[in-house]
Amino acid sequence: MNAPEPQVIRMYEARQEIYPREAKGRYASLRWLCVWLTQLAFYGLPWLTWNGRQAVLFDLTTRKFYLFGLVLWPQDFIYLAALLIICAWLLFLVTAVAGRVWCGFACPQTVYTEIFLWIERKIEGPRSARMALAKQGPSLRKFSKRTAKHLAWGLVALWTGFTFVGYFTPIKVLGAESFTLAFGPWEWFWVLFYALATYGNAGWLREQVCKYMCPYARFQSSMFDRDTLIVTYDAKRGEPRGKVAKDTGLSVNGGSCIDCTMCVQVCPTGIDIRNGLQYECIGCAACVDACNSVMDKVEQPRGLIRYSTDRALATGMSAQDIRRRAMRPRVLIYTAGLLLVVIAVASSLVLRTPLKMDVIRDRGSMGREVDGGAIENVYRLQIMNTTEQPHRYRIVAAGLPGLVLATTDEVTLAGTETRAVPIRLRAPHGAGQAGSNKITVQLTALDDPALTVKETAVFIVPR
């Protein structure tokens, strides 16, 4: 008796190379608009100047973060947490209303894949030429085209890595260092790391990032409902599909879909939207543009593939009904939550005092008696001027009768300067009870009385 043939079970599907056809139409134009806007912002912001310095700079060396006229310090990291919360709420809101439009139009993976595909098309030609080139054996023509493509990809990736590091090291300094390759070790690491990530993700992995590496594709369904706008295929109108009948413009089987597969050829993830909603769909609407162009050629109404909702397809809702259903409880809750967080953060930034002070008592001295029987305590004021203008401040202490400064009561700080200022406070004999006494230390800018901060401290009277 012959042994059964061994069966090979593959845990992962082998990758099928995808050669997306270029799509043209309203959504393709919108997608390229997003590419231009995001990349002008990313590549351009580090070169803007503000008050004589880089407008947007996260200076890790000095632990100062410049955002145009706003200067943030490590103590302000709460705003980073707030920003992440705002982004999360905004993602929930946009996804509940319009599905994965972020993925299809503004996600960095989509943006850089579009740029790299544009370079590929310019060098290797349209989809059919690229597929033919891939099937060819080794040749000088194939080698030269592939080499030119990868060199172009590498230059874009290196410039992207350089720009990324320019947000953390002043980009003009970084530019001067690049001519002599005088980068520091960390600068080398991050320029090359980010360049390699861009080159690998946008040039090689492409749809694999969206399908297998991005977690958003896996939990998007939890934010979808029957009223979420998604890219959909109108099966009632399109089926049964078949080849086009020249006399009617419909398929020979009577449906509007003529089975041209253009929607599949333009899809960056290689799916067939006619099979229904799939987690691989990034909502880029390239298939919508492709199908609309085909419908125009066969003189049929557009919209066989379109942005719509599951409920609209099932019940035949109008566009006005779809917009009305958009304002449902889930969307209202997301909107309210987002507005509350934005208002809270904006209010905090507006009311934020650009002056910080910590009062630290010298623990090596519990209070000592000086000439005349007065009691003296020593403190260190850790003062932080978070504005970019210099200020002169006056120090005032209160809380005990006769409490005075035995040191200078004025101090000057340059813009964005932090300084430790030692002070000595004296109180006359009998001014306080033995042990600890609560006092306050106030710091006020002489040129702007509204710029003031008050902190509590403890004055020790020996027993």
TrEMBL record:
What are the entry keywords? 4Fe-4S, Electron transport, Iron, Iron-sulfur, Membrane, Metal-binding, Transmembrane, Transmembrane helix, Transport
Q: Which domain of life is it from?
A: Bacteria
The 4Fe-4S ferredoxin-type domain sits at: 248-276
User: What GO cellular component entries does it have?
Assistant: plasma membrane
Write out the transmembrane intervals: 30-50, 77-98, 151-168, 188-205, 331-351
Pfam families the UniProt entry points to: Fer4_18 (PF13746), Fer4_5 (PF12801), FixG_C (PF11614)
PROSITE patterns noted in UniProt: 4FE4S_FER_1, 4FE4S_FER_2
What Gene Ontology terms describe what this protein does at the molecular function level? 4 iron, 4 sulfur cluster binding; metal ion binding
The UniProt entry, under InterPro entries, shows:
4Fe4S_Fe-S-bd, 4Fe4S_Fe_S_CS, Cyt_c_oxidase_cbb3_FixG, Electron_Trans/Redox, FixG_C, Ig-like_fold
What protein does this entry describe?
Answer: Cytochrome c oxidase accessory protein CcoG
Q: Which organism is it from?
A: Pseudoduganella armeniaca
Q: Which gene encodes it?
A: ccoG
